[in-house]
Amino acid sequence: MTEIPAGSVGETFDAPVLVLVDLETPRASAAEAVSLLAPSRAGLALVAGAAALTRADVVALALGPVGADASAALAGAGATRVLAADLGQAGTQAGVVADALVSAVRTVKPAVALVLSDYHGKEVAARAAVLLGSACTADASDLRVREGALTASKTVLSGSWSTTLRIGGAGTTPVVAVRAPEVEVPGPAAPVAVEALDVVLTPESLAVRVVSREPAPTASGPDLAGARTVVVAGRGVGGDIDLVRSLADPLGAAVGATRVVCDEGWLERSAQVGQTGVSIAPRLYIGLGVSGAIHHTSGIQGAGTVVAVCDDAEAPIFQMADFGVVGDVTTVVPQLVEELDRLRA
Amino acid sequence: MKIVVCVKHVPDVQSERRMEDGHLVRGEEDVLNELDENAVEAAVSLVEEHGGEVVALTMGPEDAEDALRRALQMGADSAVLVSDEALAGSDVVVTARTLAAAIRRVGGGQGTGDVDLVVTGMASLDALTSLLPGALAAELHVPALTLATDLEVGDGDVVITRTVGAVREVLSAPLPALVSVTDQANEPRYPNFAAMRAARRKPLETWDLAALGLEPAEPSVAVLCDQERPGRAAGIIRTDAGEAGRELAAWLVENQLV
Questions:
Q1: Which residues pair with B57 in a beta bridge?
Q2: Pair A60, A30: CB distance under 8 Å
Q3: Where's the Electron transfer flavoprotein alpha/beta-subunit N-terminal domain (chain A) (predicted)?
């Protein structure tokens, strides 16, 4: 296997780094005007991560109107230039976003373009890389500059292997979908002037029509993807979601589900954890009646501590559990809740 | 209607998967990528409803033919394997370029020719990047409608439903287009004996890069280092005899997890 080039400590690019930043409406003021659009927390973390990669500009690209507050937040995170392209409703579609990213790359000529590694960012990265004739990868973390080239780490094969990649060839701008780094994002700084970006849209991107778009039914409670504690309902809980909530609620935990639980309609689809659902990285994962099929466990590789309660002693989840109870959830969980209540009182 | 369904032959997720020299070890316990069964099902169902044909397409080593055989058993009408030693270690950009060239050849005309729709699964279970659908649509210059949980072909267009993030969307695009489907799109059929026997007589062609008029390309993503991650240390397992709930509570508190 090739050795990783050591590179000098703190090696950086001479060229700028471009970061695509999602704008979202702050939850508390959903009814307010677009002037309140703010960069997502993950987007700011990506900007902060990018700042360590270059001694040239960190250029933030936002698709929507960027107000003074949003610009200040981006500047605080480390952006030295802010580009904005307001594409309206079309700006929600990956093809259009990729076209905008391509236009920005042609304007800024960055060493690398970064997007978030979610379903949307991955599609944007793949499309933009092909249109630019460059390279792309997804689920990247730990970005570094080594011998003038970008390297990144990623885990593969359901988290059982880790790899280090060198991305991109000479003279091209790779587009990398990055897992949001766990960095502290500095508070707002003096806003930088927002530059309008002209976007060349391709016919095939414009051909995608949004027939309807509405909020999906979501669970109440903490956001699953970012939760520190997640309690997951598996087939073994039957339809008894109250049992699951009786543990999750006092812990302030988000409630997740395996595919079967969503298929049965016991919980909404947005709660599904795993390959075709949400990937989670909580400090504590508690699986109730979860057997641990790989389709589910591939989505919980980032969990710190894994606890499982399941009545099947042969269930694969016990191979990855730090604490496993082979038992009936309907007796173990109430006892667990009662004892936690007593110990934490 | 002519549909190309792209499939992949991948190591069985239940097998001992590993890397060697920066490449995934293939050819030991490989199967049709499970999430591609939904793509095949979607393509075959559309043709059953609207008429036409389904061509299954894959890129890979010779034994990737097995994935195509499975697609033929599930109802694809013919299959194409793109196989060339120069394609080993291809990244997603090279893969998309190669599959696009094969689709153009299947279509036999300008652009995608008479291919109306390209269907893929949402991800392959080896790399799990979900990059290919977007890259392939870009190569083909056709609209991409990804992560469909439902799709219908109407009068010259395709309409999908998807729920991603916190949004439920209905999207449409004129044909030709590319659609990727999730495992919620359908229940893949299990081929019966007659279907398996019929599949043996269906045409399966193998094309190399020269047949597609392509030169070998250097992938621009290189694996510098790979390493198996240490497994988790064996945990505490208790069989409940009446006290396990209390014991677990104490353990959680002691370890400051709650």
A1: B6, B80
A2: no
A3: 42-199
Q: The domain B2-212 is classified under which CATH number: 3.30.70.141, 2.40.50.140, 3.40.50.620, 1.10.3720.10?
A: 3.40.50.620
Give tens-digit pLDDT for A201-223: 999 999 999 999 988 776 666 77
Residue A161, classed as helix, strand or coil, is strand
Substitution target in B34, B128, B157, B178 with the highest count of A β-carbons within 10 Å is: B128
- The whole-angstrom separation of Cα A58 and Cα B110 is 42
The bridge status of strand A284-288 relative to strand B204-207 is unpaired
What are the φ/ψ torsions at residue A300 (nearest 5 degrees)?
-120, 20
Q: Does A269 show up as a binding residue in the annotation?
A: no
Task: Note the pLDDT of residue A8.
Answer: 54
Q: Write down the CATH number for the domain with range A229-344.
A: 3.40.50.1220
Interchain CB contacts (distance < 8 Å): A and B: 295
Structural domain spans, chain B: 2-212
* Fold topology of A17-206: Rossmann fold (3.40.50)
Indicate the pairing of strand A58-62 with strand A284-288: unpaired
Q: Is A273 annotated as a binding residue?
A: yes
- pTM, 2 dp: 0.86
A93: which chain B residues are within 8 Å (Cβ-Cβ)? 171
Predicted complex ipTM: 0.90
Identity (one letter) of the amino acid at A167? I
> What single-letter amino acid sits at B160?
I
Q: How far is CA B183 from CA A242, B48, B123, in A?
A: 27, 20, 10
